[in-house]
Amino acid sequence: MRMTKEHIAAMQALIEPLDTEETRQNYRDGLFPRSELTQDLNRRYRWDLMWAANAYDVVKDADYNDSHINTALKSIVPAL
């Protein structure tokens, strides 16, 4: 199952304002909680933005798994 364009657009509207250059640099520099445990920085960044933006609320009642959500987040948030 793929996410609908409407869900992706709604998530994007919530996430994009938080995806600032300052935030991106903080993640590149490891200035975020438990950075030493992070194995995939880009995935961690995408998911942290989603949770900070409360974007999960957009899709919580849909039948998406983590893979579907992560694929949508990749299309919304450029790699660090």
What's the gist of this structure?
The protein is 57% helix and 0% strand. The chain is built from five helices and no strands.
Shape: globular
Main beta sheet strand tally, sense and closure: none
The N- and C-terminal alpha carbons lie at a distance of: 27 Å
Any idea what the radius of gyration is?
A: 12 Å
Question: What structural class do the secondary elements suggest?
Answer: mainly alpha
User: How many structural units, i.e. domains?
Assistant: 1
Q: List the secondary-structure elements in sequence, H or E.
A: HHHHH
Strand content of the residues, in percent?
under 5%
Count of individual helical segments: 5
Q: Averaging pLDDT over every residue, what do you get? A: 95
Approximately how much helix is present in the residues?
55-70%
As residue ranges, the low-confidence spans are none
Tally the beta strands. 0
Q: Describe the oligomeric state of these chains in a short phrase.
A: single chain
